[in-house]
Amino acid sequence: MKKGKTPTEIPLAIRAEEAFKKAVADAIAEHRLRGRSIAVWRNDKVTRIPADQIVVREVTAKYAAC
To answer: N or C: which end of the chain has fewer CB within 10 A?
Structure first.
């Protein structure tokens, strides 16, 4: 059995950042599912992206040894 780092061995800041990224991805996916647009900051102004143009990215954990 391969032994890896347990979640408690990974720094809190890294775990928090990964949790934040997942929460944002989940919120964006929910907007797309419900047909709601999202607002983003692009080229120094607020831009709305229609639900059918929203791209949902999968978040993968990228824990690094410190």
So the answer is: N
